């Protein structure tokens, strides 16, 4: 089926019109995910619902859309799960029934593949989150896969990074992931589902500050001599995604800071009994 | 909504150093030697400074010679101490804070209380006002009837008394202003919106009382007249630990709903919540003649925010 479509044509374009190293369009919605996606003067920052997540984010890499919600740090639901000197991270991954993907198989909660995905995310973030700051508590991360078109793991990791940032959980660094594959000798970045089926590919998660790799996931066989090239280019591409994530974070932080200080500003709106700092 | 197609063909030139700080050189001259953009807003993992003489406070960590942020928020500097205040987070308690909280569990000699912190708070039986004498010691009979004071699901207002070794907070209600809450309803808002005030018990001009818990829980209730408050001598467990609401007339109920919705809207637009902002917003609602429920429509909410921030 897929062999009839050229992965990389003579002009150097891929089946969706991208060039070799071009990433898909990146869509990031930081913060309250329960509201419709309207362009709003103030993005709605707080969901007053008592069970609202502490942080959330939706990340779309092209047609792959993944959302992450962070609850906590909070009291562990089961007291015996509490760790006395640090927080426990627990990740749940769900694949929504309509998320599609050509695999076409519905995956329930106990599915091995989803558990593996959750475990990968958990171990990735365990070293990045400053869990020592939150002893005896639990940070629950719920990842939902809304649409699948390749690069599910990368979208999941990126969305969890953003959701943790939104929840104000302290992290040594962000974790940013991207997928890359090899088509004969050409390295392709940010693969679609179609491309993933046709070539050996890997997902790399990097902490951009230190350049350390926290996750490398490869399910196919790739010759050692080729591996380095793919790996290096993926590591470089991560910084581009990181910059985009940061610009969204700083834009949102700026707007929230502005709306707080607007109301507390010198417009005789100061509380009558406000304390002097 | 945000769309971006980051990489063009030029990406094939891989000469840049991946570990460059992404703060532009021109923007680095913020405050003395602080690296950070001019607004003082940082993201996790962003280098704040590479000058070693700074001390690192909350929200930062040392990576070799550099100090970097661990949360997204605003950079604050007190002399040599650098800290980053997160723009959104759970409640971080301080001793003396007034909090509104909910009982989640009754344990031997203590209640476990949800106060929006990273762990459940503890309310010891010895730190509540017991019926009878004003400052009497707890008895075995008190231990056996703890549910007569607070049951699961009860809301209370308390003060942060101390911390345990693991950072969990211990509360106390040893004041006649503290204790069980009734005659009203709860609104939850992000804790950062509640500034520390001289008094968190606010009697609004509209005849509704508001308790602004620093932990982001706001209690809106019927006004209690000064002379009807339970006095030192008239302390009786009947009224303090009662589970029954007083009679609340319709206009008070409407006022409570209006205040509640005002607080919800303020929180939604991330405006700080004080007695003044609530009064201001309430007056606007009354002036414009909106029904309490109208506030939940986006256009009305936006008009409200416009009105109270640009005035």
Automatic annotation (TrEMBL), chain A:
Primary site of residence: cytoplasm
What Gene Ontology molecular function terms does this protein carry? exonuclease activity; RNA binding
Q: Where in the cell is it found?
A: Cytoplasm; Nucleus, Nucleolus
Signal peptide (from-to): none
Report the family membership.
Belongs to the RNase PH family.
Start and end residues of each Exoribonuclease phosphorolytic domain:
52-169, 173-237
| Naturally occurring in which organism (per UniProt) | Serendipita indica (strain DSM 11827)
Instruction: Answer whether the UniProt record assigns the keyword DNA-binding to this protein.
Output: no
Q: Name one GO cellular component term.
A: nucleolus
Q: Name one Pfam family in it.
A: RNase_PH
Quaternary organization:
Component of the RNA exosome complex. Specifically part of the catalytically inactive RNA exosome core complex (Exo-9) which may associate with the catalytic subunits RRP6 and DIS3 in cytoplasmic- and nuclear-specific RNA exosome complex forms. Exo-9 is formed by a hexameric base ring of RNase PH domain-containing subunits and a cap ring consisting of CSL4, RRP4 and RRP40.
Segments spanning the bilayer are none
Q: Name one GO biological process term.
A: poly(A)-dependent snoRNA 3'-end processing
Q: Which UniProt keywords apply?
A: Cytoplasm, Exonuclease, Exosome, Hydrolase, Nuclease
Q: What is this protein called?
A: Ribosomal RNA-processing protein 41
TrEMBL record, chain B:
| Ranges of residues in domain Exosome complex component N-terminal | 41-78
Where is it predominantly found? nucleus
- Annotated membrane-spanning segments are none
Q: Pfam families, alphabetically?
A: ECR1_N (PF14382), KH_6 (PF15985), S1_RRP4 (PF21266)
**Keywords assigned by UniProt, alphabetized:** Exosome, Nucleus, RNA-binding, rRNA processing
Does the record's keyword annotation contain Cell cycle? no
InterPro entries (UniProt xref): Exosome_cplx_N_dom (IPR025721), Exosome_RNA_bind1/RRP40/RRP4 (IPR026699), KH_dom_type_1 (IPR004088), KH_dom_type_1_sf (IPR036612), NA-bd_OB-fold (IPR012340), S1_RRP4 (IPR048565)
Report if keyword Transmembrane is assigned: no
| GO cellular component assignments | cytoplasmic exosome (RNase complex); nuclear exosome (RNase complex)
Q: Where in the cell is it found?
A: Nucleus
Lineage, top-rank taxon, reads Eukaryota
Q: Where's the K Homology domain?
A: 184-224
Q: Which residues form the RRP4 S1 domain?
A: 90-161
Biological process annotations from GO: CUT catabolic process; exonucleolytic trimming to generate mature 3'-end of 5.8S rRNA from tricistronic rRNA transcript (SSU-rRNA, 5.8S rRNA, LSU-rRNA); nuclear mRNA surveillance; nuclear polyadenylation-dependent rRNA catabolic process; poly(A)-dependent snoRNA 3'-end processing; TRAMP-dependent tRNA surveillance pathway; U4 snRNA 3'-end processing
Q: Name one GO molecular function term.
A: RNA binding
Record's CDD domains?
A: KH-I_Rrp4_eukar, S1_Rrp4
- Give the family per the record: Belongs to the RRP4 family.
The name this protein carries in UniProt is Related to RRP4-3`-5` exoribonuclease
Species of the source: Serendipita indica (strain DSM 11827) (Root endophyte fungus)
